[in-house]
Amino acid sequence: MDKFRWHPEFDFSKVRIRYIDRPKGYSEVSGDDIKEIGHMFIYLYSGAAIPHHRIVEIRYGEEVVWRRP
Fold first, then answer.
1. How far is CA 9 from the centre of its chain?
2. How many domains does the chain have?
3. InterPro entries in the record, alphabetically?
4. In this structure, is residue 52 part of a structural domain?
5. Per-residue model confidence as pLDDT tens digits over 29-64
6. Which of 20, 38, 64, 68 is disulfide-compatible with 54, CB 3.0–4.6 A?
């Protein structure tokens, strides 16, 4: 995630994170929604916090760069 956030060749707004959102099922946020990437949580500008263990997929544009096995 830090690679996409800080490297000048990447546009962080193209990052999409899919995660388990209880009780809804799955939800997705973009890089523009992310305020801070912490040790155990991703903090959003909305005030929500996504635990890292609930992340199931990370995409950059249309490419899946990480998927939970």
1. 18
2. 1
3. MJ1316, UPF0248
4. yes
5. 999 999 999 999 999 999 999 999 999 999 999 999
6. 20
Residue 60 neighbours by CB under 8 Å, 6+ apart: 4, 10, 14, 15, 16
pTM: 0.89
Instruction: Write the pLDDT tens digit of every residue in 5-31.
Output: 889 999 999 999 999 998 899 999 999
Range of the domain at 46: 2-63
Q: Which residue has the tokens 């996409």?
A: 4
Asked, for residue 58, whether it belongs to a domain, the answer is yes
Look at residue 53 in the predicted model and tell me its pLDDT: 97
CATH number of domain containing 40: 2.30.30
The CA distance from 22 to 11, in Å, is: 29
Query: What are the φ/ψ torsions at residue 61 (nearest 5 degrees)?
Result: 65, -125
Q: How far apart are the first and last CA of the chain?
A: 18
